[in-house]
Design goal:
GO terms for molecular function: nucleotide binding. By secondary structure, the chain is of the alpha/beta class. Strand 2, helix 2 and strand 3 form a beta-alpha-beta unit. It is built from eleven helices and 14 strands. The longest helix has 17 residues.
């Protein structure tokens, strides 16, 4: 049984905590946050207001870091120096050089480390990568990925709206789509970018060019109260694959439409799109690597550095 601690009981922890609790061979024993009220909903866990105290009193196998971005690397290195495996929410940092720092600490202390880039575990996105590699519908011609939201006003100490601490919309939203691109297709050959930024709102449109195809992207923090949405459309030679409104559809050139939202229920046998929780899957993958003594390689440091380099130049 692996003993887990989590630091930073903010918004994203609401996806991590249930995933750990549902895992059959781990126990989420301890939570740490400087706000005691954030710990109260979890009376079955050990509560800490001080990270150093948690590291001292708990014999942890794994630490899950859900803190604000600017704290990720320092907390990860402290834990790894104590021989604790670390999974850390995205982005690992705003600084490209921090990638080497955190991976060096992992290797020197013989522990696992992984950044939780969740789209690499998201079934609909994994399907696109599979179709690209298999050429089931021919070659990829073009694509669109969007991630739109209103300005986040809920963050502790308003850190999300502080560029030096959060990096703003590139590091909050666009990082997801960009990381998936580099994971699935490699580094782009050229980037055309446009940014509309005022006090309190931020919008980016960028076109990424790859050999033989291009991808159009957009992301936003609108000042208006616009609801969060994420979607994609990928055009292959023989079909359009779209994920919009929570439904994944394949519009085939012969006029037929394959609804993968219901395919799993109907067991068509054509394409397998499992109904899974991507946050739970990334955590399970990391846990399995720890148990097997295998360093997680689904998220590679050179890819992380490429992503951070591009984001810092948007």
């Amino acid at each position: 049984m692996l003993k887990v601690g989590l630091v930073g009981v903010g918004g994203i922890s609401g996806s991590h905590i249930p995933a750990w609790d549902a895992m059959e061979d781990t126990v989420l024993a301890a939570l740490c946050d400087i706000r005691s009220e954030r710990l109260e909903p979890y009376p079955d866990k050990h509560h800490y207001l001080d990270f150093e105290e948690m590291l001292e009193k708990e014999e942890l196998d794994i630490l899950d870091i859900c803190l604000p971005t600017y704290l990720h690397v320092d907390f990860a290195v402290k834990a790894m120096k104590k021989g604790i495996h670390v999974i850390c929410e995205k982005p690992v940092s705003l600084k490209e050089e921090d990638v080497d720092r955190v991976y060096q600490a992992a290797h020197e202390n013989h522990v696992c480390f992984m950044v939780a880039q969740v789209l690499r575990f998201w079934p609909e996105y994994e399907l696109v990568k599979e179709l690209y590699e298999s050429e089931k519908y021919g070659k990829l011609l073009s694509g669109y990925m969007g991630r739109l939201n209103s300005r986040p006003k809920w963050s502790w100490d308003n850190w999300m709206l502080d560029e030096k601490r959060s990096g703003l919309v590139p590091f909050d939203l666009h990082i997801h789509d960009l990381d998936f691109m580099i994971y699935a297709f490699g580094a782009p050959k050229n980037i055309q970018k446009h940014r509309s930024r005022l006090s309190g709102q931020d919008y980016i449109s960028a076109v990424y060019e790859f050999p033989g195809f291009f991808l159009t992207t957009e992301c936003s923090w609108y000042a208006a109260s616009y609801p969060f949405s994420a979607s994609f459309r990928f055009l292959f030679e023989k079909a359009l694959v779209a994920w919009e409104g929570g439904k994944c559809l394949i519009y085939q050139n012969d006029g037929s439409i394959l609804d993968l939202s219901t395919a799993a229920e109907n067991d068509t046998g054509d394409l397998d799109l499992p109904k899974t929780n991507a946050y739970a899957e990334e955590i399970r993958y990391f846990k399995d690597c720890v148990k097997a003594g295998r360093f997680p390689d689904k998220v590679k440091p050179e890819e992380l550095k490429q992503v951070l380099h591009i984001l810092n130049n948007l």
